Amino acid sequence: ERYDEEINVLDEGLMNYPTNIEMLKTSISLYTKMHNIEKAQEMLDRALVVSPNDPSLLFFKATMDDENGNFADALPIYQKFYASDSTDMDIKKRLAICYYNLACVQINERNKAKEGNLIKDLTQKATSNYNDAIPMLNQILDAQPAGKKDRKLLYALEDAYKQTGKMDEAKRVKAMIDDGFVASGDNTVPNFNDWYRPQLDAILAEWEARGEFEPAADYIKRVNPETRRMLIAQTRQACEARFINEYGGYFNLTDLTIKPYD
């Protein structure tokens, strides 16, 4: 019920202006929040017909494909984003995990395969994707706070090393997993992502709420994928500064670069 009014306004607007890209984007965002993936996909398909090279639409498509397990479809889109900005840690993480997940799918397919050439082909593809994932996973983990690394990424990195026969490296990562938190005295540095995410969620929830007297056109202009990404970037920067100020005395700041988890 929370989004019914916004959806009704957008539906009416799209009846009159079926190719309005901003209304289509907002519809995608709202249907995604409502977990109505079928309608979100429908709106995304309509929007891509209108603007097939729109970066925010392509990003939506990649994330949808990714979440639905269509890693082979998501991968080339993530690769394009990464090629345009290799310093974007969010894109790097999405790409690294996509490489890893696609490799896992290929290994599963290989294990079911009967024909020799198919087995060989799937093994080579999986190995290539694991090898592409490994350096990116290492870079992301190196950039995370010393207090605690992202365990999901560590497990993925350990498995990628095992799958490619790099057992010594797998043991090194396993030791990091077993270490868990790294504390100084009685002060444990929290995982930045665990510390930061609730703050971001609260800010986004307040930002997404439509004002009682806020016109629909103003809401659509204020709340859309582009302004959301800008707000997330601003929030990250502010949180990083507060995190360093609060916990900087518990680790070596020269070895620390805080990066977001989103």
Describe the secondary-structure layout.
Blueprint: H1 4-16, H2 21-33, H3 37-50, H4 55-67, H5 71-84, H6 89-112, H7 116-143, H8 151-163, H9 167-179, E1 183-184, E2 187-188, H10 192-208, H11 216-222, H12 225-247
Antiparallel strand pairs: 1-2
Would you give an account of this structure?
With 262 residues, the protein is mostly helical. Helix content is 73%, strand content 2%. It contains twelve helices and two strands, in the order αααααααααββααα. It has helices at 4-16, 21-33, 37-50, 55-67, 71-84, 89-112, 116-143, 151-163, 167-179, 192-208, 216-222, 225-247; strands at 183-184, 187-188. The protein has a two-stranded antiparallel ribbon with strand order 1-2. Strand 1 (183-184) and strand 2 (187-188) form a beta hairpin. Helix 3 packs antiparallel against helix 4 (55-67), helix 5 packs antiparallel against helix 6 (89-112) and helix 6 packs antiparallel against helix 7 (116-143). The radius of gyration is 21 Å and the shape is flat. The relative contact order is 0.09.
